Amino acid sequence: MKKYIAIFAILIATATTTQAQKYFTRAGYLGFFSDTKMEDIKGDNNKVNFVLDAATGQLEISGLIKAFEFEKALMQEHFNENYMESDTYPKTSFKGKVDNMAGVNLKKDGTYSSKVTGDLTMHGVTKKVTVDATFKVAGGKITCESKFDVVPEDYKITIPGTVRDNIASKIAVTAKANLEELKK
Amino acid sequence: MQAFKKLIISGLVALPVLTFSFNSTAQTDTTEVDLMALLGEEEEINYTTATFKSTRVINGHSIENAAKGVLDLRISHRFGFINTGAYEFFGLDGATLRIGLEYGVTDRLMVGVGRSSFNKAFDAFGKFKILRQSSGKKNMPISVSWFSNIVCNSIKWQNPERENYFSSRLFYAHQLLIGRKFNNNLSLQISPTYVHRNLVATKAEENGVIALGGLGRYKLTQRLSVNAEYFYVLPNQLAPQYTNSLSVGVDIETGGHVFQLHFTNSTAMTEPGFITETVGEWGNGDIHFGFNISRVFTVKRKTIPVE
């Protein structure tokens, strides 16, 4: 009898841990920073959607271009009108996979690093990228973060000669989110 | 009894095994699933921005405001009439100007003051965004703003011997600005206008003048647009020498500046002036070359919450 209960308990445990857990947020952060001698340009978006499937490592990120905020209103207008053309291309998104998801245990406190590979889309151009990401689990709170560089020209964002010195050739991008369990 | 117990136990054992297998099939299914769809689409209000590049189309106000906390320094020039010939270097020897300081109080309200050399006039205005064109969660096809100004001329009295009142120096204009950005390139606006002059030259002229403005811009490139505007004054309100204001020009945008270069038959740069006191005839070559330069300064920076 006891033997049966033990087997039963083990099976239940195995079943729960392998359950397809999904994590998400609607208030993720996506920001960029352009650092030149002429001026610093910083855009922040705190309304970015993140969804992570812990079972497969599939990760999707999506944010509206118009939700990026700047200190200067004119920068925001130029960002939308002249560079990102947000009326035509309203969103930026990432669809990819956490390469080493098996090595990331979101149920256990710790810091886990992994490469994330996938398609980054902005300004209507999709490019395959591989970036470094970290997952921090502390007291049940899950934070994922990644920093990488983007070259505007790779996404057909043209910068005229008159302002070339005001915009960095490589833009530093930060993606950060506190993930919660998605209850369906 | 024993057999029954065994049955229950084997049933219990089978249950998690089944759940497990279901889960694993579920996993293989989710690999190709659109994860974002799980969150459901949260529709947002998408406000239309940059209907015009500047707060003016040429002379007339556009539905654009200076953003909150932004100070706009505007310098506007109109050279003399082109038909003054080579001696006056086709008008470039003479100039009328307005210097303005304008400020965005909130995202909807802007105020400004200015000084024009035309009639040595001071002016003050307020502009308020009533409706903002938007799509998405809230669909609003047009933007509507209210504009009012007061202009006070300070030239010496023409007839100092008679009794002159300060109120005779005052002019007012009220406009409803109704605009729409049809697409990335094309924006159009109509501006029903009422101008009130406290003093007019002859009895035949109306103190209150009704006019309708039609304004538009077409973007040629991201940083260059063609603009035009026409103010039609309804008949039998002004003396016959006055004409309707017609202007065409281009907007050139660089980093923090907008340069507006244009040709216009109006000399004045405030509403009562260019709507009711335009004397130039395009057909006669009474055309001013002119420009507006707008330079914005962010006085109050927006604070953005950072993680």
Q: Which terms would index this structure?
A:
heterodimer; A: 184 residues; mainly beta; Lipocalin; eight-stranded antiparallel beta barrel; 2 helices; 8 strands; B: 307 residues; Porin; 13% helix; 44% strand; elongated
Written description of the protein model:
The complex is a heterodimer of chains A (184) and B (307). With 184 residues, chain A is mainly beta. Chain A has a single domain, classed as Lipocalin. Chain A has two helices and eight strands; from the N terminus they run αβββαβββββ. In chain A, a hairpin with a 4-residue loop joins strand 1 and strand 2. Chain B is mainly β. Chain B has a single domain, classed as Porin (Beta Barrel). Chain B is built from three helices and 14 strands. A twelve-stranded antiparallel β-barrel of chain B has the order 2-3-4-5-7-8-9-10-11-12-13-14. A two-stranded antiparallel ribbon of chain B has the order 1-6. The radius of gyration of chain B is 30 Å and the shape is elongated. About 5% of the residues of chain B have low confidence. Classes of the chains: A mainly beta (184), B mainly beta (307). The interface between A and B is large, with 53 and 46 residues.
